[in-house]
Amino acid sequence: MSRPRRARVPVTATLLTLGLAAATLVGVPAAQAAPAVQAAPVAAPEAAADEPFSVLVFSKTAGFRHDSIPTGIAAIQQLGAANGFTVDTTEDGAAFTDENLARYRVVVWLSTTGDVLAPDQQAAFERYIRAGGGYAGIHAASDTEYSWAWYGDLVGAHFASHPANQQATVKVEDHAHPSTAELPERWSRFDEWYNYQSNPRGDVHVLATLDETSYSPGAGAMGHDHPIAWCQDFDGGRAWYTGGGHTRESYAEPQFLAHLLGGIRTAAGVQDADCGASLTESFEKVALDSNTSNPMELDVAPDGRVFYIERDGRVQIVKPDTGSTVTALDLDVFTGKAPEMRIRKAVAAVLTGLVLAFLAAAPATAHSGKLKLTVAGDGAGGVTIQAAYADGHRLDKLVRLTLTAAGSGGRTVGPLQLEPAAEGQGSYTTGPILSPGTWTVRVTAPAPHSGAATAKVRARAPQTPSLAPVARDVSPARADRSTGDGAAPGWWRPVAVGVAVLLVVALTAPVLGRLRRGRS
């Protein structure tokens, strides 16, 4: 059945055209049991000056019976004596009549289990809540009345499982609520920690969650969002629940007692509490400006005004007092596809290629122990590497090839595994190098003639973005040529590039002129 609730004033959050995302609090996991020992005297929190009221503690069980129930009753009675409210107790469902329930501001369900009320008693309790009564559930109150849908909505979530009793950390999410106001942000305590059949967040206001990384939650773990205490305005009344309270020792802990006192008092309605702050239904999407064109950036001023800028250069202000949008500034921005810019980049690329064409390095040779390394090439067609041993033996295999860019901001390419094109051949050609500039080539040879050598090669502008090494047979005669492709560096290449640049400039000059005249 749908969950009836008290009407609330919606909290509005603002977003441009696309609306708002509702924020929610993160919940804490439930607790487990502690060893049974004699309960210590209860240290009640300082009393608050309010009109007296009455509390009914209901502890009937039709399933598992917690041995902490008597200790819990005694603790609540001591809280009442110290804080100005009277406490009656019962395990008789016959106490749930309209006349009897009207005597109490709140009914505390203390570790009840199973089906504890007859249908007419259930109906009386529903009428009591709808008339403005309060409900406070402790621990196994969530292990109660599984077939009573209204009660399931009232308690918030039903028990599913629990691991062994252990120490765990409770993360307090709301320090404004009286039941969590005196608790530390991370509250470490020993208890029996419940896993629930569903996560109530969004339907209830989560006050605290369990940090499942601080204990072993077992097979029923709820994950990072594990609510353990929450409250809600429900069907005309008030509801508060805590998953703690399995152990007798719980009712001797000053912080747990403060937690209980705040829950009882707020459920009774004698102390104000906001239990709708994080509910999904408490938020409303409001479009500030539905006549936007293409907003790019947005910011909110301390006075509530919303500033955003359109792609066409208009700086807009949404005024919260009137709901109107005004243009504060109109910036001169360029919104075209920039053909002139593309032409300039093309010319620059041709000029760069012309300069780099003269930078092809002569073969570089390096010796390191038994290994001799010869590197040649311009990077555009790959780098040719010839390695041999000083004693004249061919190098059958290169183990590692590392290319390192020279200078600051350089990067390493590799290590790359290279295999020879044929047995006994010691020449290899890498794929094109992405970035022009000076590169350091280091080759390491395997046993039995282990050694390493380093040489430098200057790379031209790349022709393809691939860095994958390609092994091929390159003769020593070809490898000694500076171009690395077997062809001598002809004098005509720089001339051809220069002619190409002149042609590009001649063809683009009229276009650039027309563009300038069109913008003026």
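^ that was protein a. below is b, sequence first then the tokens
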Amino acid sequence: MTDHDIPPEFTHPPTPPDEDAGTPCEQAGPAADQEGPALRGPTGAPIPGDASVRAQQGPRLTTPQGAGVADTDHALKAGPRGPTLLQDFHLREKITHFDHERIPERVVHARGTAAHGVFVANGAAASLTRAKFLAADARTPVFVRFSTVLGSRGSADTVRDTRGFAVKFYTGEGVYDLVGNNIPVFFIQEAIKFPDVIHAGKPEPDREIPQAQSAHDTFWDFVTLHTEATAHTFWNMSDRALPRSLRMMEGFGVHTYRLVAEDGTTSLVKFHWKPRLGVHSMLWEETQLTAGFDPDFHRRDLADSIAAGLAPEWDFGVQVFPDTPDQLFEGIDLLDPTKLVPEELAPVQTIGTLRLTANPENFFAETEQVAFCPTHLVPGIEVTDDPLLQGRLFSYLDTQISRLGGPNFTQLPINTPHTDVNDLFRDGMHQGAVHPGVAAYKPNSLGGGCPYAASFAGEAYVESPTPIPPPTAKLRTSADSAGSVSFADHYSQPRMFYRSLSAGEQRHLADAFSFELGKCQSETIQQRALQMLVNVDDELAVYVAGQLGLDKPAPNSDTVDLAPSPALSQRHGSFPVDGRVVAVLVDDTTSGDTVREVSTALEEAGVRPMVVAARGGVLDGVPVARTFATMRSVEFDGVLLLAAAADPRVNLLVEEMWRHGKAIAAVSAAVSALARNDIDSDAPGVTVADSSAATSGLLTDLGEHRAWARLEGDS
């Protein structure tokens, strides 16, 4: 049979509906708010040209080998209705690649989002460390990933959980990774317990439920038997575990690190990230509503804010301690990751500022494939003997090899150092470098002795000599004085944390304990949890016991009364409103000029207005961002009512925002929307005025995050 005997539709497939022969094919580039990894080769060398060379090339559809593909909609068959042929290599390649697109998700921190940015040092750390990226005015590209801990990659953003706060600095001396959390303490003191705490917190293995929650028996079984987890458990039950936004989240290095100055002197430090927008949280009801309404809330909020030009910023700071042989400070063991040092005892000194400026171009290539390791250090920053940190030095490298398919994960563009790499490492899966020569070893003569060892004088990473304590049979469990907080003291710092909170924050924490323990089926576990609580605070235990319908036990542990630390509370006045989202509610009678005026005023203050109306489209020249059918109160920080809009969905919006203590403003024509929801126009956080004054009042109230007096009286 010749081609002339075959119907043309079988040899010349129809033109795909998305193609126009008269229009040239131009590949889409990144959006204005997006940025990819720096264009560098697998050994760190800069590659000349545009970063688009990494993207797919050419106007025609091809196979991975570059052969042109005329039809990607139909497989090759034996006749028009015959079986599919195995020789269709394009079918096999397309399906095979699809079948292998997924890589193992992270065991912990699987759910995350990230952004590119820049870190600028102010020079305040120059006397503490020889790390060049901390010298005055040094600018360092960074990639920052935020994450939840327990949930799978597809879980919701707003669950109650610790958040990861990992920063990759692409310094001129190599990559430095600071892999921390939004909580300054951890559940365990020894790395060997990490599999246990994660197995306990993950979904129970028989039914694989609950997802991304700690409100179940196995978690509470572990933390009530392993009392060193008490401090982190209290933080996890606090508002800190329910951040309003990743942009409003504090970060901590958790461990104590050692800084080495140019002259060799050493200091011990703890790292802090202080958000310039303040530390703010959701209410528990909001988190549950948001998880259903928009499970991607946090990643959307971060990406939208960056796209709007509202780059979030954090001040990077250190608490500095003398590097003494006992590694204690004010009785606090600095090698204990379940303890913090109150800022009132060791103030945080700002040493630079982080600014997130661009969203990733490709989530998988960047956010999913980025690999953080505490072993990625630069000269001037060293680890300490913290037993949890020591275990992490092994675990992170090990998990990246498993997750990313081999030891060459550092050659992926997002992980490539921004400096020369000459490591003598060879081969392995996914090797992207092409190494010439025969001498992949040291010492060698065949390669001229290259590469030469880095100079001790400013080039090499050389650990500073640190005295080793004499052998002893004693564990780190003894306190030197009545005011000491040792490894064995598991209740004094949780008490300090709880008593440092405002009355409203304490109530939120008590309600969280009541909810979580109320979800446990085992009364034995509930009783042990009450024992933990009464060892921290009697009134807290009384409240939770009452909620559970159980008796409060007597304390069975001595606790040191430490001075409260006001810095641990989130209630610290007014903050910038950058990136806050306001619903501007309108109807068909609302003037487009008025909407444009208030929107401009909000945008000039850094707020993102969203026009909300009964239907989509354009009203008097103003685009509608949300309809009554697609909105919910949880995506807004405040509402400006320019119309009353008698609709049950508007009533729900106003009622929820009132109940959640959010800023509400209305013009006189919209006051009935307040009245029908029994809202007092003179209540805290409520402004009724003309459109200009209402906008001003709204902005003032947004700076307070919530109308706390409305929610909690004077607490």
